[in-house]
Design brief:
alpha/beta; seven-stranded mixed β-sheet; disordered N terminus; DNA-binding
Length: about 220
């Protein structure tokens, strides 16, 4: 991160979209946030990887449908090669396949292009802090998908999970983001994040999408 003249720590962000008419205004608008610095704009996945390699970069705001290398493949490569860099998907596509592919590739957030500047900025900050943000339409689609295509019985949840961790997993299964979980349980978002990290480690849960599937398969949601 760099610092502004006021001493505010700024997140270094790469904006990726194959349409210049989208990425350039978006980069300009995000740059108005005092804690966000857009360090590069990329037209495809290969340019994203090059920008991250030149780094440092904290978050990539990633379109999915791009030439040369699409956003899902670029996300997978970043997750493998630069796991410290968070990816937030920003796309017009909210179909089941796109959502699940992006989250499985390692995206920490998924927004549609109906999201406003403040929503996008919040998602960038959350992803940089290790949290996941899914907009309401994406949450609803994901929950509908896993409930319609209910998987085979999942492995049992570990016996050493605390009651609070089970509560957190239940609320993740209902599609609640970290902030809403914190409000529901009257705890801080930092505490929610700690519980999530612990339960993911104990239950061998890979990501938030996997957590939703596990919660539903085990009857918690």
């Amino acid at each position: 991160m760099s610092e502004s003249t006021q001493g505010v720590r700024r997140l270094k962000v790469v904006v990726a979209d194959d349409q210049a008419a989208v990425r350039e205004p978006l980069a300009t608008v995000l740059g108005l946030s005092e804690d966000i610095e857009v360090v590069a704009a990329a037209a495809d996945g290969t340019e994203v990887l090059a920008a991250v390699a030149a780094g440092p970069v904290d978050v990539v705001l990633m379109d999915l449908r791009m030439p040369v290398m699409d956003g899902t493949e670029a996300t997978r490569r970043l997750t493998e090669e630069h796991p410290e860099v968070a990816v937030v998907v920003l796309t017009t596509f909210a179909d089941d396949d796109s959502i699940l592919a992006a989250l499985s590739a390692g995206a920490r957030g998924y927004l549609t292009k109906n999201a406003g500047r403040q929503d996008i900025a919040r998602a960038i900050r959350a992803a940089a802090a290790g949290q996941s943000v899914l907009d309401r339409e994406v949450q609803d689609r994901l929950l509908a998908t896993v409930r319609t295509k209910r998987p085979a019985p999942a492995q049992p949840l570990p016996g050493d999970m605390t009651p609070r961790e089970r509560e957190v997993l239940t609320l993740i299964g209902r599609g609640l983001p970290n902030r809403a979980i914190a409000e529901e349980l009257f705890i801080s978002e930092a505490t929610v994040k700690t519980h999530i990290n612990n339960l993911f480690a104990k239950a061998n849960i890979k990501d938030r999408a996997d957590a939703v599937r596990r919660a539903i398969a085990t009857g918690l949601a």
